[in-house]
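Q: Could you fold this chain for me?
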Amino acid sequence: MARRKKIYEGKAKTLYEGPEPGTIVQYFKDDATAFNAEKKDVIEGKGVLNNLLSEYFMLGLGQVGVPTHFIKRLNMREQLVRSCEIVPLEVIVRNYAAGTMSKRLGIEEGTQLPRPIVEYCYKDDSLGDPLVTEEHIAAFGWASQQDMEDILSLALRVNDFLSGIMFGVGIKLVDFKIEIGRVYDGDFQRLVVADEISPDSCRLWDMETNQKLDKDVFRRDLGNLTDAYTEVARRLGVMPKNQTPVTKPTLIN
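A: Sure. Below is the predicted structure, expressed as structure tokens.
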């Protein structure tokens, strides 16, 4: 049987037409990129781990009442998700200073912030996903005022959930980014957490040693990225200690 139609290919995932109207198959690649794709590599097993971890987080969010586009995992590299219209923003929640925030504001990495800070970046790789304010978002019509209130609420709820989960396994949730999608039921619109939640999109540090367990391992040449992601999966119980990721690509027909 012929492969399904490819809809979009990004840096870390490929999207295919789903088996039912209104669905998409999200395929997790092993490609790793950093610095707006200036640094690239293929990390065997990364896509499998991100698929398993994103499923774990999306299911957990659903259980606490946070809506997501996730439907089910299909195999080791693919999941079925609901088609949605992506709001053109990266929503970043920061609990500790790190990365670009430390550079912009001169705050030492690892400094705990007085409260979670939510930032927005305009999704455009050619521009380097620039930081924007709610004034920009309103002026250019990327989201309504009601949307922004709902997005903020979703982001903080995700932060509460992820922080608690990570704290329980000795991991500090430094920051993370999510994407938000609009889904429609007739004339009714609602916002959902879309894309993925994985160590690709979070900064995760060991609480005792501050060892990096996220994509900074790749960005900063700190060791083996698959080992770091596997450690997160094992702590969360997503992968038993004696199991290694299945890396052979699969694609549903």
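A (continued): The radius of gyration is 18 Å.
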